[in-house]
Every structure is written in C-alpha cells, then in structure tokens.
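Lab notebook, bench 4. Still working through the backlog of constructs that have no structural model yet. Next entry is a single chain of 504 residues. Request: give me the structure tokens for it.
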Amino acid sequence: MSPCFVGIDSGTQSTKAILIDGDTGKILAQTSISYKTLPGLPDGVQEQHPKTWVDAMESAIRTVVSASKLKPEHIKGIGVSGQQHGFVPLDEKGHVIRPAKLWCDTSTAPQAEILIRKLGGLPAIIELTGNGIPCGFTASKIFWLKLKEPKNYQRLAHILLPHDYLNYHLTGKIVTEAGDASGTALFNSRTRSWETRMTDAIGPEVLDKLPPIQMSEQIVGELLPHVATRLGLTPTTIVSSGGGDNMMGAIGTGNTKIGIVTASLGTSGTIYAYSSRPIIDPLGEIASFCDSTGAWLPLACTMNVTVATELVKNAFSWDNDRLTKEISSIPPGADGLFLLPYFNGERVPDLPSAKAAFLGLTAKNFTQAHLARATMEGVTLGLNYGLNRLRDLGIRPKQIRITGGGSKNPLWRQMLADIFDAEVVCLQTAEGAAFGAALQARWSHGLYRGEKTKISQITDRLVKIDKTTLTKPNRENSKFYRTLQIRFSELTAKVASTDRFRAR
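Model written out:
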C-alpha cells in the first residue's frame, strides 16, 4: 500500500481536507466545512476564534480518513495550509487569549501608520526587511493589542500565525517557518530571520514571544497521542511545517521552479512566482515572501476578483451560465465602458480607501451585459497590474497556472490569456493549497526517513495540468488590452492622486 497524506487548507470561510496517495497524487477522499467570521463587529474588524479552525480541521480529517477506508498506519503525514497574516495570541499555558484578528481586518491601519513613522518611512522599512507594513500584516495587529487591550497584552506569551496554531494543536510544538513568517512585517526575507529593529518598534519584549523558525522541509513533530486517537490516526503520523495558503498553493500548482506563475481567482486574487533569490520591490507593491520550500515567492495580492463578478450575478439574479452568455455577447472593451474594481479598497496598488467606479457610460453601453463585461475585464486588468510589476522585477512567466472559482469559466480563461498575453492553464486538482500541503507532507516524510528528494521532483511528477483548459492569447485582443491597461493605470493614478502609478 502506498503511503498516504492529508492536506488541510484552513481559511476564513472554510476548512478543506484532502487525502492523497503519496505515489500517484490521486485524491482518495476530500471534504469541506464552512463557517463565518464573528458577527456584530464594527466596520473593518474581522475576527474568528481559533477553536473554529481546530474543530473544522479535526472534523475534516476524521471525514476523509473514514471515507478512504484506509488503515490508520497507511496515513503517514499531515500538512497544514493556513490563511496568512492572522494573529493568534497565546498565554503561558498555551491558551488563546482572545479571538484572532484576520488578514482582512483593516481596523489596525492606524497602528500600521504609527509603526511606519517610527521606523523612518516605507522606503526604509522595505530596505530593511524587503516588505512594507500593510495593515493586513501581523505586526500592526500585535501593536493594536498592546495599545488597545493592555491587559490582554500583559498575558501574551506566544505569537502564532493561524497555521502555526493548528500545528501546535496537533503536535504541542510552537514553531514557524519562513514562508508564513515573511507575511508578518517582522521578518527579514533576505536572511530568513526575525528582524529585531521591527520587533523593537512594537516593544523589545516582542522578539521573545515569536516562535523559532525552522526549515520548511523539516517536520514539526508527530501527532500528540490524544489527538491521534480523536482523528483515528497513529501517534507516529508526522506533521510537516506547513505554511501560508499562498505558499502551499505554489506547491499544489507545481510552482516550484523558475518560469511558472500561479494566479488564484478567488474573492480576492493572488499572482505569484517561484524565485531562487529574494525579489524586493522598491514600491512595496510586490510582497517579498519566502516560499515554503527554501526559495522565494514574490507575490501580488488584489482584493477584488470574484467578489466583483458575484456582485453582478446577485444584482441581476444570474447564474454562472447566464453571466458567461451575456459577457460573450459583448466585444472586448465593452464598447468603452470601464470599471475600476475597488469595491473593497485595494492592496496592489495600495489604495485601502478607494472605491469602485464605472467610467465611460453611454446610452449604448448602459446594459447589464456591458456592465458584466466591464466588471470581468476590470478585475483581470487589476491582476495584470500585479503581473506587470512582477515582470518589471525580472519574473519571466513561461506558463500561468490558474486556480480558484474564476478559473472554471472558459470565457474568463481566454480573457486572462489575452490580458496577460501569455498561455494559461488549469490544474487537474482544483484544491491547490490543500493539495500543496499534502505534497509538502509527502516531501517532509520522505526526508524524515532519509530520502534525498527535491520538492520539484515531487511536483513535476504529481501535479498535472488539465490540457483541455490550455488557452493561448488572441494576439489582436492582447494588443487591444495593452492600451486598456494603460488607461487602467492612468485612471488609478487619478484615484490615488499620485503619479507613482505609471502606465504599464
């Protein structure tokens, strides 16, 4: 019997689990458990209790283990992918002090601004760590706790990220790895270490509360016996280092060597690439992340992708088929109608307070179909802004692998190929982050047993593209969209009232 591995993807809306055959990559069982953020919180505040993630993870693991009908000893390892940037505060006994502030919590923006001023401005911070301090990153959330809830801060003994906390629950070990740590704004992505000048800006005590950093290929440990019993597994089941959802998504899409770029089309969107060296963006728009394999993962994140197309569907009471039909009836450019898609503000470019706007409305294009076309084009141009920033920094994509809900739409795939001016393709496995977590567990388990395998050897063999979705750009459309991209940047510059958003 082949060794089998569980991959967990713990997010803000659901926890997904898959169980794979470690030799073939075949998914033997999978499940998803949904939940919500805490209700009734003020605008900008987004929180969840970590117990929600723990309960969902345990239930999901039990479900896939039971559905697979495998003997417990055949399941050799677990890998955990977690939403990035969240702040899980623990006391000395390892108990959660308060609900976790999530990546999408913008209430700590004032604390982020204070830290930026204390540290000499954004350029100085980027020079120091490779990244800025967006309010979504962890640093401002820790500072918020110190300023707003001093009694809770006095109890703070351990600072964990969401995936670190789930690993702690499984193994009893407090540790992190470079990929997820590089999204805290407290981490130097060049040296792969905590940056004391950043931690001291919050307080000199912070460094001692951060977890030690281990190499991504190392295991965290084996399952605690009582946890193994609850999950229906053996205590010798290993838990790999895991990582942030983007890092695990990179593994799950085979983005483990130069030339591959991944674009994820979810509520928000990410676009990222493998790099053998740190990629530092002087504008701070591209996140200088480490990946979870020992390399780097420069990444652009946009806040508005399927959130915008869902708004269209809900407003017009359409399903996906109707959306596709209506958009396909309208030519590229929507007869002059254009959307700046900043419904939730924006992260790349950095416009946290921006609002969405339709421009170029006429009697001819004031139709539902035109509005839908302009919406899909607007969010795709937003993603392409990030891709062009990656290109500016030396990334040369040979193929763009797309995941997420939007990737299932063939019309959108063609639009992506045209606007990116590059070949795009989907994967046979849709759950990139969970699959990547399982593959990392496969890699770590092998190394733990003495194998000398590179992660790229595993992904080259087990990550398979769906050749039926391979889409090449239409050159005429790509040429047209290049002019539209210039307009996108010019209009964004007006929104931002700054000239730093040059035409791309």
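Notes after review: The mean pLDDT is 94. Residues 342 and 356 are 4 Å apart (CA to CA). Flag for follow-up if needed.
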